[in-house]
């Protein structure tokens, strides 16, 4: 996401996450004018961003790599926001643009809001379709089904949606967004309230996950994806940079094993770029890290250690199967891996 | 210490610790004009400061509380440096001054350097005698012997000085001062060099302490005091604030047990004020923490858990005994304790 997650938000009284402005949906029936179609859309992400990373994981688990192409922005934004400076000529090879903002401008001229990822862009017109990070992955799971790979899991099972929605709402408020409220707090009280909420919720989640392998049901769902993208960033950035430091993830036996289990599941860890994550947070948020120095830690080798969560049972992909290997062009470089 | 450990040093190319300017020694024979004398001198410290905390611990272990009185400065300096704002009327009740700087000025007018703790002040004249943090504790151990309590340990045993000096020099360079070099680095390379050195040395120390209870010999010495004052600050401030985050102290089984063993030894943990430590670093160094927000973590309860280091043998106080309880006026308030 990172609409104004950097310095502009930072001077305000309390951190408020912007609502997505572009909320058109890409659906099977095309009712918003955007029908699901293989090869038509491009998913623009930053691997640094937890909100965008949800979509990267969903796309992998569902086997949408061939149908929905991927543009990875540079983890360091400049004053024009997300840039394609990792690509030849600093230009996205499919959209032909240098900044994601160009797709926003193509959709709505003089749009005054921030530029955020994840974003889906309509390739033929170059227009942004949606930056609705809350809806986007649910639609990948439920509207793009005709394009799913054989054996794709059901990430938003109809019978579990009420429970999932409730869990995801709590996780959003206290964890996904809670770490940002702590990190971007400008006052002691605001920080303490947010940090307390983060750890209260993590403690409850740790308890919940003591005897069950996954958050809801006995298979991987969107709820796990949403918790994972925060947990994987916890020790590298939220613990120190956002001062969520009562304990490290690695100090909570249950959550640490849960996170490692997911990390080692195809489609999760193989999308994570710790180099992008650390450089983005520590270099972009000069309001809380004026030197821009990126820490050497934490030691990441633990991510690959045995987790023993299989003993809890569960069927990671339900009646489905794990995704195949990462497409060669999308493999995370060695410096981003544990 | 904290001569310019705050913002003024911070803008420079590389962090250089100032040498002490006032290096007179208080000795048994009084050769510098300052003879050891009960009641004559006042030790000025901040409980936040690792260099000053060495002296607080030595004074306790040696039972010098009655002979050498203690002034505790506010952990938050202002532009006039260390203040006695914890005392009635914001004035040290014995020296009658509001700022430690007044004792510096009494000794040398227009002294251009910084004001640092630990400092020993001559009460009758109000003059600073020494701020030589490297020498000061060694003199407490070797020159103040006539005033030591019965059963005081030998903190700088004659037969072990070469080994101690070598160990303390390495610990100073890479650990005591290394964390500051990492934390106050203004460039990535400078930071990485310092942070690497911190953890290389900690790893070597962890290995050394695997089979021996104390750093040198089989009793507590000055070498342990000097390592302890950095270790006790490691997770609360150096890990996050100074970016020494490869791992927490609590993640290294040996060093964490070693630090807890000392913490639970009378004279060590009973001098530690985590509230002063955290507020000092996070509020004073606005160059690296512009918001001045003080983190809620880490969870400190682990400091009081069993360490099992007794199994390694060792005789904490050698032929001596542990110190008695902390004088009532010097007890660390509850908010500073685990």
What does this molecule look like?
Two copies of one chain form a homodimer. With 338 residues, chain A is mainly alpha-helical. Chain A folds into two domains: 140 residues, Glutaredoxin (3-Layer(aba) Sandwich), CATH 3.40.30.10; 179 residues, Glutathione S-transferase Yfyf (Class Pi), Chain A, domain 2. Helices cover 34% and strands 5% of the residues of chain A. The first copy, chain A, has ten helices and four strands. In chain A, strands 2-1-3-4 form a four-stranded mixed beta sheet, with helices on both faces. In chain A, α2 runs parallel beside α4, α2 packs across α8 and α8 packs across α9. The radius of gyration of chain A is 19 Å and the shape is globular. The two termini of chain A are 24 Å apart. About 2% of the residues of chain A have low confidence. Chains A and B meet through α7 of A and α7 of B.
């Amino acid at each position: 996401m990172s609409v104004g997650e950097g310095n502009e938000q930072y001077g305000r009284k309390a951190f408020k996450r912007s609502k997505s402005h572009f909320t058109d949906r890409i659906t099977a029936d095309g009712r918003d004018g955007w029908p699901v179609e293989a090869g038509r859309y491009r998913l623009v992400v930053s691997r640094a961003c937890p909100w965008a990373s949800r979509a990267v994981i969903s796309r992998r688990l569902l086997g949408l790599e061939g149908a929905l192409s991927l543009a990875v922005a540079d983890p360091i934004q400049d004053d024009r926001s997300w840039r394609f400076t990792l690509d030849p000529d600093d230009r996205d090879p499919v959209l032909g643009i240098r900044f994601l903002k160009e797709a926003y401008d193509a959709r709505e001229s003089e749009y005054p809001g921030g530029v955020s990822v994840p974003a889906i862009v309509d390739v033929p017109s170059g227009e942004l379709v949606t930056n609705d990070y809350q809806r986007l992955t649910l639609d990948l799971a439920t509207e793009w089904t005709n394009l799913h790979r054989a054996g794709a899991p059901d990430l938003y099972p109809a019978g579990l949606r009420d429970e999932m929605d409730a869990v995801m709402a709590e996780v959003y408020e206290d964890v996904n967004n809670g770490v940002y409220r702590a990190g971007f707090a400008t006052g002691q009280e605001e920080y303490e309230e947010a940090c307390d909420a983060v750890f209260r919720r993590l403690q409850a989640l740790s308890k919940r996950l003591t005897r069950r392998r996954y958050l809801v049901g006995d298979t991987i769902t969107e709820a796990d994806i949403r918790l994972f993208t925060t947990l994987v960033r916890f020790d590298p950035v939220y613990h120190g940079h956002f001062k969520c430091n009562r304990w490290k993830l690695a100090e909570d036996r249950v959550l640490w094993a849960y996170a490692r289990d997911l990390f080692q599941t195809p489609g999760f860890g193989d999308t994570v770029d710790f180099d992008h994550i650390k450089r983005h947070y520590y270099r972009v948020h000069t309001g809380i890290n004026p030197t821009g120095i990126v820490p050497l830690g934490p030691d990441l080798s633990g991510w690959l250690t045995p987790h023993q969560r299989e003993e809890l049972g569960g069927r990671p992909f339900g009646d489905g199967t794990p995704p195949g290997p990462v497409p060669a062009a999308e493999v995370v470089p060695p410096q981003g891996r544990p």
